Amino acid sequence: MEVGFLGLGIMGKAMSMNLLKNGFKVTVWNRTLSKCDELVEHGASVCESPAEVIKKCKYTIAMLSDPCAALSVVFDKGGVLEQICEGKGYIDMSTVDAETSLKINEAITGKGGRFVEGPVSGSKKPAEDGQLIILAAGDKALFEESIPAFDVLGKRSFYLGQVGNGAKMKLIVNMIMGSMMNAFSEGLVLADKSGLSSDTLLDILDLGAMSNPMFKGKGPSMNKSSYPPAFPLKHQQKDMRLALALGDENAVSMPVAAAANEAFKKARSLGLGDLDFSAVIEAVKFSRE
User: What GO MF terms are annotated (predicted)?
Assistant: First the structure.
């Protein structure tokens, strides 16, 4: 199976590498073309524009940073729309809002192409290990044809119906994750300021009902003030903002998420946006100084 892949950031690079390692022929594009070099060493081909990738491949996956990037790759000069046509499938796995997905879907299907949104739950390590959770919606036949690729990229794929549902589910998942991370950060700081061992707190949490992979994986590094980016904080804050907008749209009160969003915004203002989203703990520390 041959696929195109647009976007080679932290997630896209790991995902496209997995496809290559599992026997897929992969043609890649990235705005900074030098980021394609490592993939080429593993057998990937490179195109100089999204349009060229679409022209070459029956199926093209995109994994981009935000709604602006997702729209740009489709609508700008040299973009997806220049070559999308009947017989071509476009799978956007970026985390965007439902409005963005709907706009892309309308444009793709208007040119005869098929569209699936497929945002993922999981960050760098699950992407490298092929353990993502895929939240797909849109063209059911294209979803089913994409299963061989999805099975390489993730441990389970959900089909959620009409376009927009995948985006909404992903924002809800990330809103819960961001709110948990902020509460976790407050707990670690509170333990330390109360004269308690935050390492012991981690052990206690891991033995109880609140034990989870995020606390177990992130906690030790947070206690060492180390935040290598698996999921950049600036993207987490973007997702909190989009989730809160979804809450406004549906008249759902979300005071916990709103407070967490303020903490992530504070962390961004401290210059921490490119670090892992667990660096939000620094905003909690700052507020107590």
Answer: glyoxylate reductase (NADPH) activity; NAD binding; NADP binding
